[in-house]
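Deviation from plan, reported transparently: FE2/S2 (inorganic) cluster complex.
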Amino acid sequence: MYVCICKAITDKQIRRAAAGGVDNLYELREALGVAAGCGSCASMAQAILDDCNKGYSQPSVYTPSRA
Ligand code: FES
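Because the crystal trials were delayed, the predicted structure below was used instead.
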């Protein structure tokens, strides 16, 4: 689906960029031009990046509580 209408960028292109190492909106703008026009696509593009980067986040550390 198209995410950025101004630049005709799809979610697949954003996911491909994320797989190639793009991990923030600034880099995505530099790479594809997303959010370089009206900017209304920025939140959706960020959500897609966040979704792509979920697998690379640090695992949470289990801390047992004291009873
Ligand atoms: S829809 Fe992406 S810059 Fe306008």
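The beta strands are 2-4, 9-10. We consider this an acceptable substitute for the interim report.
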